[in-house]
Amino acid sequence: MLQLKAEPDADELWSEVATADPGAVAELYDRHGSEAYALAVRLVGPASAEDVVHDSFLALIKNPAAYDRQRGAFRSWLLRVVHNRCVNLLRSRRSAPEDELQFLPDPADQPPEQVLSSLAASEVQSALRGLQQDQREALVLTYYGGLSHSELAVKLEIPLGTAKSRVRRGLFALRDMLSSPGLEARP
Amino acid sequence: MTHAEIQELVAGYTLDALDASEETIVADHLPDCPTCTAEYHRLVKVIDQLGAAAPRDDPPARLRSRLLASTEELFAGQPAPVSPAAVLPFQAARRRAAYPRSPFPVHRFEWLAAAVLVVALAVTAANLFGSNRQTQAELTRDNAALALLTSTETMNDQLAPGTLANLPADAHGHWFHRASVMSQVIVGEFLPPPPTGQHYEVWLLRASGWASAGRMDTDATGYGRVIVRGSDGSDVRAVEVTLERGQPAQPSGSIALRFPAG
Prior knowledge:
Chain A is mainly alpha-helical. Helix content of chain A is 66%, strand content 0%. Chain B has an 8-stranded antiparallel beta sheet with strand order 5-4-7-8-1-2-3-6, with helices on one face.
């Protein structure tokens, strides 16, 4: 019987990256680059998204030991790196003097309902819609708008403690929704 | 801060929603607290699903070629990456590596850690390749600049297209700098090849006037980089990348990129 050699998983590829193999980087990008880029576009727009994804991969390549495979898949690790870098870029933009702003759209200005409608995963959409309205708004503005607790409190004109509480409760409720029968998490 | 107060911050930590001081507290707390660690891992799974649910948007083909060009350059310019565990004897650095808001340390030990890594890389390279002092200095300089590029606290000011004719629509650049870090990096991207006999020159404007920061050679993708040592950029008022002949004392050619815009 013909036996096909299994494709290396992301962890195996990452081991090759750690030995300075450019082919492994190409393979990882081909598998996960689109998802990383999509998240970055959502947060910082297409022009900056290219830089964020490029710099995220490069930073991971530069420090491969920072990725601990025991603590999650490479894909989720990469998405967290990208989100973190996008958030830092957004905060840098928001703190820039007004005359230096280049009229870049802020993802936190998009109504949460529009954000929800644009999401690619229906189960995540459904789960978010199942949240209380104030928790949904807080969670969407925080994750897809890149707002900190403090920025969220200012935007919604609510006390900081209330902002933190809404985000936390929303995230816990979302976890319960996504793990409930009929709303299985994506693999 | 009490345990209960820290536990309430874990959700914000996974969402990148905390301020810097809160983030440090959570990062330092997680390795010592199984309860919060378990909560962190449960919530990260939800965060992963939010990340993967972002609206689909295919990256341009040039992003792949740019990343691979940068990777080749990185791998060619240094030995295989060194495990931080081998060179970072800091408990806090290990903690943040294990429980990332971002997988990269962003606080107190970041630059100390980077410096140790740079020295380790330079020494390794010297041992491996029998480098002379000049080569070792080059390696140290480049890795210091790369550390600047990968820091989440670095300022990243966009260089806008200037007056140079026939600039591609996506031509742009970056000026990376950070207070008290005596290195700056100026990057140009998607620049057209300079005409024969001309080159791109980077200029910094200070109170004393314009001064060259060096020649920017570009690769096949139009990417070029100049590393400036000895200044953190706090005294720089403007940055320009111009097309020049020879070595003028101040910018005289067409402006390819500039900061601030306009």
